[in-house]
């Protein structure tokens, strides 16, 4: 059983302005894919959930947004922490989830297992929040698409090998598809479904 | 105790802001697609910019500097009252200078001065569905967007040409965003359409009565629909602005008397004032010496 301090502590010190600043970073992040955005407000969710993922959950989740958690997160104090601070319910069903949170090192399920929205309502898709080792210092990839002037290099570290295949399959079913928030420490890097990512030519 | 304390910051409650914020993020991820949202009653009637106000209230922070324009002007009723609203409920800094603003809420104009990265333009939208006057049923227009079936829109533009010899649509001129969704740019004059293309600023659209939010991220392709033999053209004006002498800007017609007297002046008041401060003068600008 999780200790009460783990569940009740660790939310935003100033909920209104912290949520606004984290949202602003996410909005700018989705409007400028590939940019690393440092969150100005911090949260301390129970282990193994990361600080940035916690801040995203506090900013965007509530009783309208079922959240899917990895088995490790589901077994921790995280479900109770999310329930207490946001009112969101945790769901076992990936297709019901509006948000899915994946901690560092956990296996990343195929993107098509989550809700992809419908052709009529492509907005009804899951947003994945994946914590990885680092948002820079990895293998450089070239990203293009809306929000990116010409192209931008992203070099995240800690995504599975199959990420590029997952992502191009996700891009191919546009306008349906998942959106991605990569987190590390107190920073995020957002990838909307419109971003096209390719390996750089050597 | 100040007036501010009786409201949450920026008027809306936090749950409403979260719901709108989620809609905004999905709107940015699917450029041009209209995301349904649970629009709230606002302390102003539908048609006065409740959609834009809700979007602005959800993105606004204490560090932002807000500019509000109504038909390009900072000093008309809608602009003045919305600016006063946010001063009261968010105590936010306001400006009339396009350069200084981080958020610009607009009713039907895009400022003449090029917007830059980091600025957000929030449009007030009356009818977000570009196909609505062609097909009144939401179930049908939704299917048409799903299937990318936009033939009807081209028929409408073609009928314009058949009747008038040219495309007679002058405002709310339909655009295609990133080669996928046909979008209503809100009733801006088509003069402003080219400014949406590859804009450095983020553009958000809020329709309060119709309960839709949509977006165009920065550096996104926005193409006005046209035909090879009838390419898209913007309005041209015969004369420069009567006050500042600017050419290639959008002008408003001002009736001066009941004898047919009229003048044309910049619709963007900030741009016009800026130019006059820099010494530009149109032919009807009152000379300082003459006034003294």
Short description:
With 202 residues, chain A is α/β, with parallel strands linked by helices. Helices cover 28% and strands 19% of the residues of chain A. Chain A has a single domain, classed as Rossmann fold.
Describe the model.
The complex is a heterodimer of chains A (202) and B (292). Chain A has 202 residues and is of the alpha/beta class. Chain A has a single domain (4-195), classed as Bacterial phosphonate metabolism protein PhnH (Rossmann fold), CATH 3.40.50. Helices cover 28% and strands 19% of the residues of chain A. In chain A, helix 2 crosses helix 3. The longest helix of chain A has 17 residues, at 15-31. The mean pLDDT of chain A is 96. Chain B starts with 13 loop residues before the first helix and ends with a helix. Chain B is of the alpha/beta class. In chain B, the strands form 3 sheets. Chain B has a 7-stranded mixed beta sheet with strand order 1-9-8-5-4-2-3. Chain B has 8 helices and 12 strands. Chain B folds into 2 domains: 3-224, Bacterial phosphonate metabolism protein PhnH (Rossmann fold, 3-Layer(aba) Sandwich); 236-280. The chains are: A alpha/beta (202), B alpha/beta (292). Chains A and B meet through helix 2 of A and helix 1, strand 1 and helix 4 of B.
